[in-house]
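## retry 2 of 3
previous attempt timed out at serialization; input unchanged, resubmitting
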Amino acid sequence: MAALELVTRQFRRGTRLDQLPERVRVALDERERANEIMARLIQLTIVLMFSAIYFISPKTSPDEAFSPVPYVLGAYLVVSVIGLIWSIRQKLPHWSVYGSILFDFGLLYSLMVSFHIQYMQPASFILKAPTLLYVFIFIAIRALRFEARFVIAAGFVAAAGWAAMIVYVTRIDSGDNMLTRSYVEYLTSNSILIGAEIDKILSILFVTGVLTLVVNASKNLLVSAVTEEQAASDLSRFFDTSIASGIRQSADRLEAGKGENREAAILFVDIRGFTRIAAGMNASDVMLTLSRYHGRVVPIVQQCGGVIDKFMGDGIMATFSFDGDRAAASKRAMEAAEMILRDAERWPKEEPALKAISENGIGIGVASGPVAFGAVGQENRLEITVIGSAVNHSAKLEKHNKVLGSRMIASAHTYREALEKGYIGDLVAEVRTDMLEGVAEPQEIAVLTLSTAGHTSDGGETGAGAPPPVSTERTRTGT
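## retry succeeded, writing output
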């Protein structure tokens, strides 16, 4: 009983398109329009197939006899081409679809009537033609629109048309109707068996009914799928592209408490003094500034293979992890940091919205080490995050830029890992030992600055051959 109730509820559930969000309705319209174009292409294929079969088949009628078939096929071809062009240019109104259904079956049955005229056979010849099978194709075509009413209309027009063919044969052209009650005689002659013709009508109606149920259920599924797809698309914007892709393609359900260990490099970027700057700006300007800032930094991180873990106001945290190769991650993080620093020099000229923050500049911290990557939170509110000492260390290094008045600090071992992996850039390093806020032991760090070598005065690269970074090893204890 439960299964029966589920099926009944599924087929009785209506889909109120006017209650759907606008973006969902637009997505549904786009799919239905694409399916309508597909239906028109199928119609065109059918008429071309009809034409090919007719012109290659032997003709039994006299040469001087009137041949209506080519005219019917020609009209069908013209209407099919017009319908295809129309559907490509714009969404078809519903009345045009109903009109197309009437025209489809009108031409199909006209073609069947023309056979017995052209080949000078009894009218019962119509009922023997295998062309009737195309009726089911035309009904099925209407299922492409996911509108049950179009399928129902096509089915009833098809059934009514075949009933009209029976009337034509048995009443209008009664002289040659050759009615019989023998099934054998019906199959072996031009005789007509009324029961067999009624069976054809019932088959048309049953096929229509089944397709109607299928289309109704499919429409509900389509609406649900498009709605979820639009919601997932919007929600995926809150995740980094690679994380969102991983969630969609994962075979396992995303759950809190599941994670994995990784070797990674963590990069923190922060705007110096942004809280004070934002206090003198209106909310729209603050959001515009952050949007432009993110628009400059995020593509660089992604270009270097990094994943944006989170936005923390004016702070950005990115993770670099490459199949357990921590040195490769450190190298990519250093390359991203250098590109961000170099790009920040161009902000005053290229981004008017960033002029206010360009004066104070940005701070970057980079550290590497083992981290835990996974989902945290509750069942109805999850967050993908990275946790580990490297995360804390990079955040503290970024803050230490304020103490030293620098723009970038990396842990010394991260910097050396990048060099060992082949990093060659324009960052000049001063390796020193300082006390970091919140850390009990002195830490060996690399204070990095951009070298002007290898670049023009306006910040553009002069090409390959830039000198490798210079490392000045000095041990200094800070406060």
